[in-house]
Amino acid sequence: MPQLPGKIKSILKEYFTFNRRERNGILSLLLILIAIQIARVIILNQDGPEIQIKLLEQAVSEVESQSIDRRTNHTIATKKNNIPAIKAKIDYFNFDPNTISKEQWMRLGLSGKQAKVVLKYVAKGGKFQKPEDLKKIFVISEEKYLQLEPWILIKQDKRASKDDVISRKTENPEIINKPEPFNIALKVLELNMIDSINILQVPGVGPAFARRIIKYRRKLGGYTDLNQLKEVWGMDSSRFYSIKDYFTVNDSLIEQVSINSATFKELLQHPYLDFNHVKIIVNYRRKHGPFDSPKSFMELETLSDSLRQKIIPYISFE
Length: 318
Fold this sequence. Notes:
- With 318 residues, this protein is an all-alpha fold.
- Among the domains are: 91-180, no CATH class; 257-316.
- 53% of the residues lie in helices and 3% in strands.
- The protein is built from 14 helices and 4 strands.
- The protein has helices spanning 6-16, 20-80, 102-107, 112-123, 142-148, 162-171, 173-177, 196-199, 207-220, 237-243, 264-268, 275-288, 294-298, 305-311, and strands at residues 189-190, 247-248, 257-258, 315-316.
- A two-stranded parallel ribbon has the order 1-2. Strands 3-4 form a two-stranded parallel ribbon.
- The radius of gyration is 38 Å and the shape is elongated.
- The model is unreliable at 158-186 (pLDDT under 50).
């Protein structure tokens, strides 16, 4: 049998040789470990089921406690960030869109801003003659209209309907042969209510331009001036001047954003505001508090005067 070199033998002896005191300590530790294992076996054999039940109950209690803590933390975070914890319940009912209040619109699932746009339209003399007219309000999506449509009940006025006129023409041949007067109003379309299909009535506007006009209207929150059509991508001067007389603008239908409560991301979505503009507005709110009036916003000289004039119709100071 080969002999180990002296150096290696010396190292092994140094690390694996114990004196009497160390050997006694190791022996005592082994005896304690053996005693613990024996006691554990005895206890589990005697009261195993009860101990397992207690352990299970303890684990369930800990999980429930952690779940409650998470729900509590979530609630606190929700309140802190002004996030609604529970989505408002939609309560559908039969309604006439010409007469219901803001609160009733919100019961039907519209936001406060959307309800405000509809009410402004009615307050300015707009009237819904038939359920489909509600689709002209651009803040109401096609999906939302389909949800509301079965519940719309419009009270008919006493004026003669189109069907009545047709009926009278059928009974009286002289009326049929009499030409109807030209109605210039049929050529003029409300830019903030019309949909992409009706825009196709305008000479020189194809499907692509119709979609762009509607898309840019949604980004803006509505048009305040016909000249904003020039900002639609691909719109040149010749096309603009050829179509502008077919449109009118009702700026009461504008959807505004709250300058004091809108988030950085929400403000940045407006096409007139870039990152630096929004940063100036948010920093002002942080340092000086909310804007209390249009005047206080117009005094924000770090934004150009032309930008302030363009954006102010689209902001509210609630």
